[in-house]
């Protein structure tokens, strides 16, 4: 049996914790907040899992194994916090994200359906789409009920004997030597150290990651007009509407309808800029790009903003940095939730010496 210290109790830290615990190791997770921490990127009502990845076919291919890993988690939790609604990327012009996804699906032989004309209007009656628009529909895909997942995963870890230390900020780490220091100066030594600190990484390891590009993103929960409430609930989530103009998650299991607009994000750090928001201005800014495509766009009623931070590198590939006894996970982008349990299992294999760091790093980078 070996010991592992994990800095960060989000989906990455908790998934590695579970995989290590299942292998019989001693697990100690620390988080600066409660576990789960509502400020972490992993806590929201829902996150999307879908195979649509534009040209990034490596990530599209990772989605089937990711589902198998989710199934193993559902077995442990005794409940499946996912609904298979399918997901649709909508193409508005040649060469956009949905169009490139279609080419990638065809080249890789991944299952999908192209929906156009009257069929697309039936699938998405709440949208007003230009002539020539088509949808790339794929399943399994849909909402993962993120807040339930991380809460139940944390409880499962506690019951199974992991040590979850809450409200304890780690001030310094030396991953290569497996060492971490709490803010009060006390040292924690272990055989392995995982740093899964999300967008707080630049503050935790300023020498190595001080320039890591952290972004703030805000998502908008809203009430649709009554005439389209059932259509939104029944329809698959939108992966992208045109070239990254927007995406949606449906109101399933009481989660609420949520939309996001990728270009709304901006460079910012959670430990510097914090969690304040201008509700009225940000709601308008998120909703405006959807207006040309929503029927009765003026009748949508903003309810609440959900803020989150992630590190997003220009190459948009997850980054694992292994050194000595430690591993740092970063560049999780707005994409890692769906791969959390699968990544956890691979990292546990790496710590066990069953896999080599170069292979796992390359796999995580989507090659
Ligand atoms: C708005 C938004 C929408 C997204 N949409 C999707 C989606 O639809 N599908 C998808 O797959 N992914 C999505 N993602 C991405 C996904 O949610 C993240 O990539 C994933 O949750 C990152 O998990 P994590 O464990 O690395 O980080 P986090 O969940 O942020 O966890 C990091 C934890 O580390 C703790 N911590 C940090 N520093 C310290 C320290 N010094 N000491 C102690 N504790 C510390 C923090 O408190 C935090 O709890 C989205 C992300 C955001 C923000």
TrEMBL record:
Entries under Pfam families matching the protein: DAO
- Which residue positions does the secretion signal occupy? none
Q: Which segments constitute the FAD dependent oxidoreductase domain?
A: 3-348
Q: Respond yes or no to whether keyword Transcription regulation is given for this record.
A: no
GO MF annotations, alphabetized: flavin adenine dinucleotide binding; sarcosine oxidase activity
Give UniProt keywords alphabetically. FAD, Flavoprotein, Oxidoreductase
Cite the InterPro entries for this sequence: FAD-dep_OxRdtase, FAD/NAD-bd_sf, MTOX
The cofactor(s) it depends on are: FAD
Provide the protein name: Sarcosine oxidase
